[in-house]
Design brief:
3 helices; about 170 residues; mainly alpha
């Protein structure tokens, strides 16, 4: 996707004990993102490197970049606070030596949609992204595509104090 800088640290092998890390953060959207990026930057960078290669294989570098730019347009339009969270993650990752851009982070979150639910109509004019979506023979039925994330908040971390859980 967009080039932000080189990683100072090569991606480390990721091992799992079967339980994803629990990361506790607090503060503004940017501050929480920063803390998250600092704590799990190696995992974020690892996942991004794998997913980026698959998106480029599926749609080419230009096609994948344009797709993510379109998705970003709608994210910023309907959830502008998300950009602060992603900027924080980017900066937290970079503080630990992992160069990644905001668009790269968007591509991680939207990877399943890009692979399994990618539109086949031209890019909407309002996004400012030129060109038509290129079709791809690289279909989602290809084995090995997997991406999951989860998020939860409760108490003072939500506006109404009710628990919020999201899983994709």
């Amino acid at each position: 996707m967009e080039k932000r800088g080189k990683s100072l640290n090569p991606p480390q092998p990721v091992t799992s004990a079967g339980m994803p890390p629990v990361v506790v953060v607090s503060g503004s959207n940017y501050q929480m993102g920063y803390q998250y990026g600092e704590k799990v930057g190696h995992l974020i960078f690892h996942n991004w490197a794998i997913l980026k290669s698959k998106l480029i294989k599926a749609y080419g570098k230009e096609g994948a970049t344009k797709d993510i730019q379109v998705w970003s347009y709608y994210l910023w339009k309907y959830d502008p606070d998300l950009k602060d969270w992603l900027r924080g993650i980017r900066d937290g990752c970079e503080a630990k030596g992992y160069g990644i851009s905001v668009l790269d982070l968007v591509s991680i979150g939207l990877y399943p949609t890009e692979i399994w639910g990618r539109p086949d109509t031209p890019y909407p004019k309002e996004t400012g992204v030129e060109g038509d979506i290129q079709s791809s023979a690289y279909l989602a039925r290809t084995k090995g595509y997997h991406s999951c994330t989860s998020f939860s908040a409760t108490g003072s971390a939500t506006r109404d104090g009710k628990p919020l859980v999201a899983i994709s």
